[in-house]
Amino acid sequence: MKKNFKTLARRLLAMSCAIVFCSTGIAAQADDVSNLEQQTTNLQNQLDKLNNELNSLSSEITTIASQIDEANAEIEKAELDLAAAKLNEEMQYTAMKKRIKFMYETGNPSFLAMICQSKNMADFLNRTEFVRNITEYDRQMLSDLKEIRADIEDKEASLKEEQANLLSMQETLKSKSDELNTKISSTSGELQASAEALANAKAAQNISSEGSNKPAPPDNISTDDLVLFAAILQCEAGTSNYDALLAVATVIMNRVESSSYPNTIYGVVYQRGQFSPTWNGSLSRVLAKGPASLCYQTAQDALNGSRLSSVRNCYYFNATWTGHQGTVVGGNVFW
Questions:
Q1: Is this model's pTM higher than 0.70 or not?
Q2: Which residues does 26 contact at the CB level (< 8 Å), separation at least 6?
Q3: Are 82 and 145 within 8 A, CB to CB?
Q4: Which residue, 187, 207, 227, sits at the end of a domain?
């Protein structure tokens, strides 16, 4: 009696440990899924932020490039204006020298002699005013030309300084753009890895939650069946949402296991009037390129017995835009 009691106690203890172990394992898997979902969301937000920053930088680079073009045009114009001012100054100076030379060559008296030959005070004042006007005109003209040239030189120097600053800003922005592109590439890789890890964790969680009650994998599944299965999943649920893919896979496997439908993947997929990709060409296109990795994984998981619990008893689905009532997973509604 005591021996039987001890044996029973040991069995109960073993069962309790197994239950605790399984519960702990499922809880750990749930934590993994939750952590991976949070990580994937954070990475997606980070990637969106980086892309927004890159768009803003690209806009700034375009603006700076336009300003550089304008500065180059203004510098070119200033250089031409400076050349014109120098030429004008030289021409005025040459004209003045020619005028003085002409006066001496034609025998005209010098300005001083002209003044000294005045007939009276009024004539003296007139001659003095005439000489003063000529010399003042020449002096003022040369002064004005030098001032114009100095202004143009200052403007040219200022424009070249602005051009140098703009070029420096452009290089800085391009450097930041290259850095952002590197970060975007790295974050995209991390996001893809996180999404794949999340899909794997969800698959493992589904398998663990179903336990020993999950259906046994069908016998004699060929490579062709697996490829066809993965391709129809991609046609109906895309390539990135594991739950959406598994939901479609659950419906297909429910039909395979039901006496009301063909008992093979091929038979269910090609049953008349059931899956539109078999007649609209999309299935052929996917088969020609090969299904995505996640679709292969989901198909294999479903063949191994994995099912999405929310559609476990469903045999039909349609696109959500049809408005049919049922359980929505991804872009389809199931019933």
A1: no
A2: 205, 208, 209
A3: no
A4: 207
